[in-house]
Amino acid sequence: MEQRNLGPLRVSALGLGCMGMSEFYGERYDDESIAVIHRALDLGCTFLDTADMYGPFINEQLVGRAIAGRRDEVVLATKFGIQRRQDGTRLGINGRPEYVRSACDASLQRLGVDHIDLYYQHRVDPSVPIEETVGAMAELVAAGKVRQLGLSEAAPATIRRAAAVHPIAALQTEYSLWTRDPEDELLTTVRELGIGFVAYSPLGRGFLTGTISGPDDLAQGDSRRAHPRFTGEHAEANRVLAARVGELAGRKGVTASQVALAWVLAQGEDIVPIPGTKRRQYLEENLAATQIVLDPADLGWLDANVPAASGDRYADMSAVNR
């Protein structure tokens, strides 16, 4: 597996997003999910991504069980900041220093590890200066509980302020063929500062695989049923985009998923996509995308024929890009 850098961290070129194993994307299959993580490690995928709010809390526990006895094979990333109760109730975004410290200790316990390799602020708390939050995160590095710091869905000015307090290894933000927002200013900012870029939802939350045409294709309780891009006229427009990805895939003899991932990988060696899956079959398909080369003609065709998706990324965009 090709390796890439996220600041000082060396990780596999493709990571594994673990969120959907526990919540948001339909039923849980814990035994299969653990098998997926084991297979990922066997194939050289070393970068695992979770967060305390996934589940809530149970995704970290799942990842912890999966990596028990294999901790030295893993670059482990988790997040704090979207505060939830055990019953799933959302309490808002919390970046207060005392919460940063308590959240880290709780994550370490659930994961069953003595340190976190990459600790993200999941969303920026507009009520707490970023300097205070990152200052508390820096204390975790000094204490040996965290190796490197990250931010998620932060705006360029916020990233610069954070990096002035402590080096930031990675920014995590949605990026894919149908989500081009980072190209406006974010990628320029992180590259100037030497920060790696982690692309979540690189398959357009599954839409770019060509297997989803709208909310009726999703299980009851799947959070994507409420996402603007999956409903109504937006879904109709986005089916056209997904079909075009599939068209190129057919010409190349690969899958639409592999084309979508290869496109993200081709945008720079400082970009690490983290597609998620609950099935070993799809894990292996995704990892094979690292061996696919899109030539300049392929990339140009995609840029010309697969513009940004129709519809907002979230029903409520107020918590992103702060």
Question: How would you sum up this structure in a few lines?
Answer:
With 322 residues, the chain is of the alpha/beta class. The protein has ten helices and twelve strands.
Description:
- 37% of the residues lie in helices and 16% in strands.
- It has 322 residues and is an alpha/beta fold.
- The strands form three sheets. Strands 3-4-5-8-9-10-11-12 form an eight-stranded parallel sheet. A two-stranded antiparallel sheet has the order 1-2.
- The longest helix is centred in the last third of the chain and has 21 residues, at 232-252.
- The chain starts with a strand and ends in a 17-residue tail after the last helix.
- The mean pLDDT is 96.
- Helix 1 (30-42) crosses helix 2.
Number of strands: 12
Runs with pLDDT <50, length 5+? none
Helix content: 25-40%
Q: Main sheet, how many strands, which sense, barrel?
A: 8 strands, parallel
Task: Report strand %.
Answer: 15-25%
Cα shape: globular
SSE ordering: EEEHEHEEEHEHEHEHEHHEHH
Mean pLDDT: 96
From the alpha-carbon coordinates, what is the Rg to the nearest angstrom? 18 Å
Strand order of the main beta sheet, please? Answer: 3-4-5-8-9-10-11-12
Structural class: alpha/beta
Task: Please give the count of helices.
Answer: 10
What is the straight-line distance between the termini? 34 Å
